[in-house]
Give the backbone structure.
Amino acid sequence: MSSKIKAKIDCCGSNFETEQVSILGLLTLSVPLTLICILLWIPTFTLGFIGPIKSLNSNLKTIINANLLLIEKQDILPRLRCNFSVWANPISPSLSRTVYDKFNIISLVLCWVLALSGVGLFV
Amino acid sequence: MFNFNPEKIRKDFACLSKDQKKAPIYFDNACMTLKPNVVTEAIVSYYNEHPSCHNRAAHEFGEVTTKKVHQAREQIDKYINCRSGESIVFTKNTTESINMIANMIDFKKGDVVLTTDLEHNSNMLPWQFLNIKKGVTFVQMPIPPVAEEFDLQEFQNILSKGKVKLVSVFHTSNITGIQLPIKEITKLAHENGAMVLLDAAQAIPHYQVDVQDLNIDFMAFSLHKAYGPTGMGVMYAKEEFLNKWVPFFVGGEGITDTTYDSCTLSQAPEKFEVGLQNYAGIIGSGAAIKWLSKINLKKAHDHLIKLNEQLAEGLLSLNGLKLIGPTQAKNRSGIVNFSTGNRNPAEICLMLSKMEKIMTRSGVHCGHSWFHKYELMPTLRASLAFYNTEAEVEVFLKKMRDLIK
């Protein structure tokens, strides 16, 4: 708890968090794990009427939600995230909230897309 | 004395009297209030018409400055109801005032300084350092986040253990808005042989703090929280202390004569105001207090509590938000401080500013120790002044609903 508080505060606490889960860790572990789990979740959902698969589906859902929450809570380009959310607000408050909530995962997935595109160009 | 009317008051502030769409919604008044035009005009007038120092210059500019500095001091003396012969000392801010007092009281090893655990860092660190430097014992009386009022019985118990030399407490908390029963605290402290230092930083803009009525020994406050200029504060001490104390800072203006071995100190308050002073700030402070003296503070306070109630009710209807501090608006002064659930308060603060020019404050509000002790996460604080309106609170709530549903 104490280190978490330390991470968030300044004299009057106006700064953003400085100590975060490493972006590299999110990029190489959380994002691939989330994507794999989403891919597995789709067939397990459709076959959910089978007992053991239903349980697997439930576990996958827990892993996906936990990872999405972990990613959502990190400060990856926080000012840009806020700016996008502010920009979307006049269009729709719900869109603004979605932009805020999903900014991190979209950014990380985009990193993967760019990296894979780069590899694709060389190959 | 005119009747209280926020719309009329707003006309006195350049940035609030703009077109409604351009005017900011300023909810960071616990940090600093906005400045009425009379204050900026007084400052500009000093720089344009008589930019000189006071007392030591015999020329015309000097005479005008001397007179205006004297008037400003008298205005503030009158506002806090100093006794005849007493006078305030101008400082940079509350922090400097408390540090000066902490270093001028003759503390000995084993003396006890009693504060609460909810003090601003500025009324905590001077005692922590005194503990390291002189072996003074520093005791904090707990005020948990759920406290509705100050526990006088517990305070009496700590006092009766003896050796408390100084009680140094806030009047109104900048974190929860809770107000302490200063008159009762002072009475108990004096009965137990302790002196009382009042941190009135959050009180001065909202209450007529009367030093005679409260019978406090020392007081510190900032003018920038009371519609005055930045970098201006006040140290008040009873005459007996002002006369006997050796100044913490020494230098020009603080003396009437020197040799290489000794000096003759000026009288108080000049002996404590050494070096060239912030004359523009002092004159601006006088203008601010003069302006504040014309406000019906009772009616202004009622307006503030009404806004506080409206704001808190609206926020509590939102998912995941939780107020810290007293549940009743009348016990929170102008402060509405709340946790923002799983949202980062700093990000909400930034988005409110960008979306609607709503200015709030996020973080731990210079109360790190208290947040650590009670394991609280940083919060978002809206702090109100009497120029704020119900319409502004509605806009704030609408935007909060947009951000947190």
